[in-house]
Specification:
Layout: H1 3-8, E1 13-16, E2 28-35, E3 41-46, E4 53-56, E5 60-62, E6 92-94, E7 100-102, H2 109-115
Antiparallel strand pairs: 1-2, 1-5, 2-3, 3-4, 6-7
The structure holds zinc ion.
Zinc ion binds at residues 79, 81, 84, 90, 102, 104-105, 107.
Length: 120
């Protein structure tokens, strides 16, 4: 998929197809968490994994019409804070003003959603 397709697929299911997997064989489903800065790879969370794996965009395909039903949650997105473990998503804990804030980057979930273009 292209970087544009990847950006449009954030929070949605994608299929990973390894180079040795034929087009008629099933790939591996995952949720596209975020686009890497290089825009050549994306972080994808596969199956029951709790962290995401960096995957080349050329090996990913969108699943049309097979999107997550849940509303987009900021916890699905990779935390880019230097204090966050590699591949970790935002982890929200109660903050000082009664709002949930990420324990790594200290952003609120609505701030993260705004930055991801999910909320205005
Ligand atoms: Zn964070």
């Amino acid at each position: 998929m292209t970087p544009e397709e990847a950006r449009a697929s954030i929070g949605q299911k994608v299929v990973y197809r390894a180079p040795h997997v034929r087009p008629d064989q099933p790939g591996e489903e995952g949720v596209l968490i975020s686009l890497a800065l290089s825009e050549r790879d994306a972080f994808v969370r596969y199956g029951a994994d709790t962290t995401s794996k960096l995957t080349p965009l050329e090996l990913l395909e969108p699943i049309p019409g097979k999107h997550l039903r849940e509303p987009f949650s900021a916890t699905h997105y990779l935390c880019d804070s230097p204090g966050a473990p590699t591949g970790a998503t935002h982890h929200f804990v109660p903050g000082t003003q009664g709002v949930m804030v990420c324990r790594y980057c200290n952003r609120s979930s609505s701030q993260v959603r705004r930055e991801m273009g999910l909320e205005r």
